[in-house]
Amino acid sequence: MPRPEAPALVDHHCHSVVAADLADDALAALLTESDRPPAPGCSPFDSALGLAVRRWCPPVLGLPVHAPAVDYLARGGGGGGAAAPPPAPPPGGRRGAGGG
User: I want to staple 46 with a disulfide (CB 3.0 to 4.6 A). Which of 2, 10, 25, 42 is the partner?
Assistant: First the structure.
């Protein structure tokens, strides 16, 4: 019996792209959905998403992996809205439920 085709996986939990330039604290606030401040001595860059950002983004700016947030931001982390490249097409070229 043939196996059914695997369904396309969709990450339904995503946020909009911010096209405006952001202050460092506004960029950090996008790394969490909490309405509470981080624990003393921590920042949103210490969250799971913050660690992922610090893992993958600093090397693009010539910084080491997991560079401190202050170094990442000072080097231009976030880059501003005008620096963001256009989004890559999704795998298989599908967009939305209608595929377009």
Answer: 42
For 80, residues 6+ apart whose C-beta sits below 8 A from its C-beta are 21, 22
Q: Which residues of 30-43 are buried (b: 16+ CB within 10 A; e: fewer)?
A: ebbeeeeebeeeeb
What tens digit of pLDDT does each residue of 44-80 get? 999 988 999 999 888 888 889 999 999 988 887 766 6
Q: Which two tokens stand for residue 64?
A: 């080491």
Q: Tally Cβ neighbours within 10 Å of residue 71.
A: 14
The whole-angstrom separation of Cα 15 and Cα 88 is 15
Q: Burial, 67: exposed, middle or buried (Cβ in 10 Å; 0-12, 13-18, 19+)?
A: buried
